């Protein structure tokens, strides 16, 4: 009633929220850190500040053992050594690309320590980067090489043969730099053959060098080569192709300047600084062409955190028996490097979740029951921030022991990048793998702009929101005309508008179904002071200082970038369009990987749908038995999945099982503004959800 009176007293013209910032003390988005405004300046500061401290590490494959691979020891570099190696790379690039006015390095390799160092070397000698997904098809690879003409390519040695066809159409490419993740003689011999074939096919018009040869060349010319870190914040840092791969339209790039990249690093540093500890370690394996990962790695570099780089992306992250490719004689990347911070994508976390449930199923029933019982106790206690009790519960429920079998004993917080993950699943994964703080953080960014908007460490995170805006970004919510943005006291809702020093502003127009071309073109003319409409709907809880996205206005969602965040409310709206669905709430049980839909169904429409199914017989079944008929529920789940795919949803956004009810969700299940209260619906049907989860649980 209080909220209703408050709404009636609001001015309908007040349809914009106040500016939402990371902190009220910030008068404007920050653009620099320590007075430094370019990535090269920040990198140099980190090298000079941390000196002989361990900086980064990587390892290689040293043997083939049947179908598995044996991995060697980690090779560590100090900050000083990394600084020298980057200068050598920069000098080598200057020598080999000498005489070309516009120099661009196409980064087609996967995430690696050399990718990261080479990116800084290129920036130091004013070579523009072209950052792409390393899994692009030959058609897409050719497009990205020619759309913004590259003069050099960085590629993994095992993928060199992919370059032969694309480079026939790219006479402007004169240099290929490659790196190998293997020291096995068989692999090195194959590399020699691939290089010879590539040189013959291209008629020796390109120079091909390994990353080590590039460093040796750079060392030879270091004295005569002047390396100056760029001071021009408006100079182009690189061209980022944020699209995934194998989509029907060719990708276009976003242009980032030195100032925008540095502002993003500065903003994330301020957001994470208080949650980082001197002995933290981070294992990077997510693609560095993703701006979030690249910015995060740079922030940790500046903070003095030791960085490890995964071997061939996520291939060897886990140890046996959870990984069939990793030789049992060597630990996987995670257990051997022992990171304290781990990030992953939604599909990767789903894989971890499934392996966790299978590992639990192999334990005695008594231990399984203890795990679930003490996990619930941990959930209750974490809210009270009682660290000693949390430690006891982790021991009694064997939670810490199970976490250690996957990630070792040092993990203290985890995160998920991009895409949709229900709050229930994020809470579960945080409780199991997130250490004492027990929170999995999740950022939100706009892939079509290569711009991150929210990203917080656990200290500022809630289990339901996406944190606060980064200090380099500010946002506001704009409701429709004649509507108030404040829907209830302290709760604001409207279209998300953003601006900031780290936002990518220079855009290439793209004409693609469902994409707001007007927005894209308008962005070309905008500046840091102008607001950009993201075409998303958000909600800001001023009490919890928590932001979340509640709708993605693209229709259909097949027109989006596959990593783009789709809120659970959007999934529910898609399923609500089916004739027999009155209303739907999508939830998740800890005991299964798939989403579960709680559906209020129309009985007449449901019976008509059931009659159309050849394998389902419902004649004479009363309503109370109809909703529990498992064959019908399986058919409905399949129908929902098919409808979701047609609407552009991908695997981890599709419902795996359903709970059916003929109940209508009246006032008792609605918020003050008439929207279904998801929490109340989930609470009422929790028992049925768990029963459905048991049927979906991996064996």
UniProtKB/TrEMBL annotation:
Nucleotide-binding among keywords: yes
One GO CC term, this protein: endoplasmic reticulum
ATP-binding among keywords: yes
SUPFAM superfamilies attached to this UniProt entry: Acetyl-CoA synthetase-like (SSF56801)
Entry keyword set: ATP-binding, Ligase, Nucleotide-binding
GO biological process: long-chain fatty-acyl-CoA metabolic process
Ranges of residues in domain AMP-dependent synthetase/ligase: 44-189, 255-503
Superkingdom in the source lineage: Eukaryota
InterPro entries referenced in this protein's UniProt entry, alphabetically: AMP-dep_synth/lig_dom, ANL_N_sf
Molecular function (Gene Ontology), one example: long-chain fatty acid-CoA ligase activity
Gene3D superfamilies xref list: 3.40.50.980, N-terminal domain of ligase-like
Family: Belongs to the ATP-dependent AMP-binding enzyme family.
Protein name: AMP-dependent synthetase/ligase domain-containing protein
Lineage summary: Eukaryota, Fungi, Dikarya, Ascomycota, Pezizomycotina
């Amino acid at each position: 009633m209080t909220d209703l009176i408050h709404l009636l007293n609001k001015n309908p013209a007040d349809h914009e929220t106040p500016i939402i910032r990371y902190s009220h003390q910030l008068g404007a988005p920050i653009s620099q850190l320590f007075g430094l405004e370019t990535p090269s300046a920040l990198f140099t500061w980190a090298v000079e500040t941390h000196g002989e401290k361990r900086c980064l590490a990587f390892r290689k494959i040293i043997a083939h053992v049947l179908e598995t691979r044996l991995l060697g020891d980690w090779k560590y570099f100090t900050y000083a050594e990394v600084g020298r190696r980057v200068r050598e790379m920069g000098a080598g690039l200057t020598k080999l690309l000498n005489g070309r006015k516009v120099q661009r390095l196409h980064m087609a390799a996967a995430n690696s320590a050399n990718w990261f160092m080479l990116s800084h070397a290129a920036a130091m000698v004013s070579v523009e980067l072209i950052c792409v997904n390393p899994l692009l098809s030959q058609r897409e690879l050719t497009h990205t090489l020619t759309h913004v003409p590259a003069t050099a390519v960085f590629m993994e040695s095992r993928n060199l043969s992919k370059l032969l066809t694309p480079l026939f159409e790219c006479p402007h490419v004169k240099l290929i730099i490659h790196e190998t993740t293997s020291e096995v003689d068989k692999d090195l011999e194959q590399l020699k053959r691939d290089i010879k074939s590539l040189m013959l096919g291209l008629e020796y018009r390109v120079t091909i060098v390994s990353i080590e040869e590039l460093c040796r060349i750079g060392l030879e010319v270091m004295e005569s080569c002047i390396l100056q870190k760029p001071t021009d914040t408006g100079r182009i840092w690189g061209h980022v192709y944020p699209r995934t791969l194998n989509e029907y339209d060719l990708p276009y790039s976003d242009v980032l300047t030195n100032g925008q990249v540095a502002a993003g690093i500065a903003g994330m540093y301020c957001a994470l600084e208080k949650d980082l500890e001197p002995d933290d370690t981070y294992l990077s394996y997510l693609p560095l062409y993703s701006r979030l990962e690249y910015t995060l790695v740079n922030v940790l570099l500046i903070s003095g955190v030791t960085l490890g780089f995964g071997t061939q992306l996520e291939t060897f992250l886990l140890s046996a028996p959870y990984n069939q490719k990793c030789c049992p004689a060597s630990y996987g990347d995670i257990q051997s490097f022992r990171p304290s911070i781990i990030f992953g994508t939604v599909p990767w976390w789903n894989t971890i979740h499934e392996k966790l449930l299978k590992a639990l199923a192999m334990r005695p029933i008594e231990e399984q029951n203890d795990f679930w019982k003490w996990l619930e106790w941990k959930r209750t206690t974490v809210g009270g921030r009682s660290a000693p009790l949390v430690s006891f519960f982790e021991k009694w429920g064997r939670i810490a022991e199970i976490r250690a079998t996957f990630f070792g004993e040092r993990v203290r917080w985890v995160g998920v990048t991009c895409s949709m993950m229900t709050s229930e699943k994020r809470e579960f994964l945080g409780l199991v793998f997130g250490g004492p703080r027990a929170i999995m953080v999740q950022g939100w960014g706009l892939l079509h702009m290569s711009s991150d908007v929210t990203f917080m460490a656990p200290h500022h995170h809630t289990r339901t929101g996406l944190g606060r805006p980064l200090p380099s970004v500010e946002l506001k919510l704009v409701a429709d005309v004649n509507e108030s943005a404040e829907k209830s006291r302290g709760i604001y809702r409207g279209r998300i508008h953003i601006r900031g020093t780290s936002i990518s502003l220079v855009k290439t127009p793209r004409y693609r179904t469902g994409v707001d071309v007007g927005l894209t073109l308008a962005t070309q003319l905008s500046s840091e002071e102008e607001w950009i409409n993201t075409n998303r709907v958000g909600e800001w809880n001023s009490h919890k200082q928590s932001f979340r996205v509640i709708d993605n206005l693209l229709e259909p969602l097949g027109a989006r970038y596959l990593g783009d965040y789709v809120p659970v409310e959007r999934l529910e709206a898609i399923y609500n369009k089916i004739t027999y669905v009155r209303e739907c709430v999508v939830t998740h049980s800890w005991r299964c990987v798939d989403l579960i839909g709680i559906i209020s169904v129309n009985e007449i429409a449901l019976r008509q749908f059931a009659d159309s199914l050849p394998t389902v017989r419902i004649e004479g079944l009363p309503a109370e038995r109809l909703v529990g008929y498992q064959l019908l529920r399986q058919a409905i789940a399949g129908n929902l999945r098919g409808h979701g795919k047609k609407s552009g949803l991908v695997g981890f956004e599709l419902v795996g099982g359903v709970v059916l009810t003929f109940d209508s969700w009246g006032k008792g299940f609605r918020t003050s503004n008439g929207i279904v209260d998801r929490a109340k619906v989930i609470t009422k049907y929790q028992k049925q959800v768990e029963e459905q989860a048991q049927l979906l649980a991996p064996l």
